[in-house]
C-alpha cells in the first residue's frame, strides 16, 4: 500500500483513489513572467518522480498542470518592457515547456492556460455569489472567508488570529481594503484597469484573481473530488487554502482527497533570492550540468525536506550517478565477454538478491515516495552484484541472471526519469578519445586509419602480441603511451580493458 504525507491531516495516510487503478493529479504550474529558477524546478521534478512511480506501479495517472498567463507580475513585466502582456506570457510559456523537457519532466496530460478558461472561472464565481460565499463591489468580486467555516484547516491557521495583518490574503492592488466586508476576503474577479487584459463578465470588464483559476481548471479536467493536489510548500497558504475554500464552498463536497507539498530549495544553505545574488535559473544550470545529474541531486533529498543546492553537491551527484553508469557498463562488458566455462557465480543468490532489490525499492517508494532510501537500495544492490562478479569471467549460463540484474538497475533508475544507458553514452561522448592516439597507434602498431577507437584497439592488439612474444619493451611502450594520453589499462582474464579519463 502506498502511503503519503497529507498536508491537511499532517500525517502519513494510505493513498485512497476514487477509482481503482486510476489517479487524478493536479499540480500548480508557473506564472509565466520570467524563466523558471531551480527552486521551481525542484517542485516540478519532485512531482514528476511521484507521477512516474505511480505509473510504474500500474496506475493510470491523469496529470493536469496549469499555466498562469494573466497575472499582476505578467502585466508589470509587459509595462516594464513596453509590449503586450499576452506576448510576455507566450514567450515564457514556451520557455517553461522547453526547460521542462530539457530536464526530462514529462508533459502533463492537460496543460490549460488561464486565459483560455475564463468562462469556467466566471461560472464558478457566479455559483459562489449565488450561494452567498462571494459579493461584488464596484466591479470587483470577493470571496467571503468567514462564509466557509472550515477555512484554515489545510494550513493549520485560525481565522480569528489572521485578522491582524496577513496581507497575503488581501486583494491585490491598493486602496481597496475599505471596500471589502472583511479584511481577510480575497479577490475572485478584478475590475478592469486601463491597459490591462480584460474580459466581459456579469460584473463588468475585468480579469480573474489568481486563486480561482486552479479551482476552475481542476474541476473541469479532473472533476470533484480528485485524488491528489500538489505544489511547493510556499503554496499551502494562501493559494491552496483559498482554492480549497472557494471550491468546497461552491460544490458542497471535498475538493481534493490528498494534499502534497514539496520542500524549498536553498543555495549554499541560504534562501535563494536576487538580493543575495544567488538566484539560479534552471536553463543556466543546465548549460553546465547534465539533466540526469540535476535530477539525481534532487533525488538524494526527500521531496518534503529542504534541499541544499551547490556546485559541490552537483559534483557529488555527478560522481554518484557515474558509479551507477559505470556499473551498467561493467556488466555490459562482462556479458559481452562470457565464455563456455563453468559458472563462477552463486546464481541462486544473485537471482534472490535481484528480487529483494526490487522489493526494497518498492517499499522505500511506497513510504511517502522516499527517493533517497530507494537510491540506497539501488546502490546496495550494485555493491552486491559487483561483489559477485568482480574479477570473474562469466559463464554463458550466467548471462540470463546477470542480464536481469543489469536490467533492474536500468529499470529502477528509469522510474526516476534517468536513463543510465543514455547517460553513459553521453558521458562517453563527452570523453571522446584524443586524436593523438591515432599517431601513437601508427608509430607503435602500424595503424593506417584515422579512427581513434580503432587506433586504441590496434594498440591493445599490438600490446597483446608483444606480451605473448615477451617483447616487454614494446608492450611497455604501448602502456606508457596510452597512460600518457589519459588512458588506464586493466588486465583481466578476458584480455586488456581500457578506460579513458581525459
Automatic annotation (TrEMBL):
A motif ('HIGH' region) lies at residues 30-40. A motif ('KMSKS' region) lies at residues 271-275. GO terms for cellular component: cytosol. ATP binds at residue 274. Keywords: Aminoacyl-tRNA synthetase, ATP-binding, Cytoplasm, Ligase, Metal-binding, Nucleotide-binding, Protein biosynthesis, Zinc. It is found in: Cytoplasm. GO terms for molecular function: ATP binding; cysteine-tRNA ligase activity; zinc ion binding. Residues 360-424 form the Cysteinyl-tRNA synthetase class Ia DALR domain. Zn(2+) binds at residues 28, 214, 239, 243. This is Cysteine--tRNA ligase. NCBIfam families: cysS (TIGR00435). Pfam families: CysS_C (PF23493), DALR_2 (PF09190), tRNA-synt_1e (PF01406). The keyword Transmembrane helix does not apply. Its EC number is 6.1.1.16. It catalyses: tRNA(Cys) + L-cysteine + ATP = L-cysteinyl-tRNA(Cys) + AMP + diphosphate.
Amino acid at each position: 500500500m502506498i502511503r503519503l504525507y497529507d498536508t491537511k491531516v499532517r500525517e502519513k495516510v494510505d493513498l485512497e483513489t476514487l477509482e481503482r487503478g486510476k489517479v487524478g493529479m493536479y499540480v500548480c504550474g508557473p506564472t509565466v513572467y520570467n524563466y523558471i529558477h531551480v527552486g521551481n524546478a525542484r517542485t516540478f521534478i519532485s512531482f514528476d518522480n511521484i507521477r512516474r512511480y505511480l505509473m510504474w506501479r500500474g496506475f493510470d495517472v491523469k496529470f493536469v498542470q496549469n499555466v498562469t498567463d494573466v497575472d499582476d507580475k505578467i502585466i508589470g513585466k509587459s509595462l516594464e518592457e513596453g509590449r503586450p502582456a499576452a506576448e510576455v506570457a507566450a514567450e515564457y510559456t514556451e520557455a517553461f515547456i522547453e526547460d521542462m523537457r530539457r530536464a526530462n519532466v514529462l508533459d502533463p496530460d492537460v496543460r490549460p492556460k488561464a486565459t483560455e478558461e475564463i468562462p469556467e472561472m466566471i461560472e464558478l464565481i457566479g455559483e459562489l455569489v449565488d450561494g452567498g460565499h462571494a459579493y461584488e463591489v464596484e466591479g470587483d468580486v470577493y470571496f467571503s472567508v468567514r462564509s466557509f467555516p472550515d477555512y484554515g484547516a489545510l494550513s493549520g491557521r485560525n481565522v480569528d488570529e489572521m485578522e491582524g495583518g496577513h496581507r497575503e490574503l488581501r486583494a491585490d492592488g491598493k486602496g481597496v481594503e475599505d471596500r471589502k466586508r472583511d479584511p481577510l476576503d480575497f479577490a475572485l474577479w478584478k475590475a478592469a484597469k486601463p491597459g490591462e487584459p480584460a474580459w466581459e463578465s456579469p460584473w463588468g470588464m475585468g480579469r480573474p484573481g489568481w486563486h480561482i483559476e486552479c479551482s476552475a481548471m481542476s474541476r473541469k479536467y479532473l472533476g470533484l473530488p480528485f485524488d491528489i493536489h500538489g505544489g511547493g510548500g510556499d503554496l499551502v497558504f494562501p493559494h491552496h487554502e483559498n482554492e480549497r475554500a472557494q471550491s468546497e464552498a461552491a460544490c458542497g463536497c471535498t475538493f481534493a482527497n490528498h494534499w502534497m507539498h514539496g520542500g524549498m530549495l536553498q543555495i549554499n544553505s541560504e534562501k535563494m533570492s536576487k538580493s543575495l545574488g544567488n538566484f539560479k535559473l534552471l536553463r543556466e544550470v543546465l548549460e553546465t550540468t547534465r539533466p540526469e545529474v540535476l535530477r539525481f541531486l534532487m533525488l538524494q533529498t526527500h521531496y518534503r525536506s529542504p534541499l541544499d543546492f551547490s556546485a559541490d553537491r552537483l559534483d557529488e551527484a555527478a560522481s554518484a550517478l557515474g558509479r551507477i553508469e559505470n556499473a551498467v557498463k561493467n556488466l555490459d562488458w562482462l556479458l559481452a565477454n562470457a565464455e563456455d566455462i563453468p559458472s563462477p557465480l552463486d546464481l541462486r543468490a544473485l537471482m534472490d538478491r535481484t528480487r529483494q532489490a526490487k522489493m526494497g525499492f518498492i517499499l522505500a517508494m511506497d513510504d511517502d515516495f522516499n527517493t533517497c532510501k530507494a537510491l540506497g537500495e539501488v546502490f546496495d544492490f550494485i555493491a552486491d552484484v559487483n561483489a559477485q562478479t568482480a574479477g570473474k569471467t562469466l559463464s554463458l549460463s550466467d548471462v540470463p541472471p546477470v542480464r536481469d540484474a543489469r536490467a533492474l538497475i536500468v529499470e529502477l533508475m528509469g522510474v526516476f526519469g534517468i536513463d543510465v544507458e543514455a547517460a553513459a553514452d553521453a558521458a562517453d561522448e563527452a570523453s571522446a578519445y584524443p586524436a593523438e592516439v591515432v599517431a601513437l597507434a601508427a608509430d607503435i602498431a602500424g595503424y593506417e586509419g584515422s579512427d581513434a577507437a580503432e587506433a586504441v584497439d590496434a594498440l591493445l592488439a599490438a600490446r597483446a602480441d608483444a606480451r605473448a612474444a615477451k617483447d616487454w619493451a614494446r608492450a611497455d611502450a604501448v602502456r606508457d603511451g596510452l597512460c600518457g594520453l589519459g588512458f588506464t589499462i586493466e588486465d583481466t582474464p578476458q584480455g586488456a580493458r581500457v578506460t579513458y579519463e581525459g
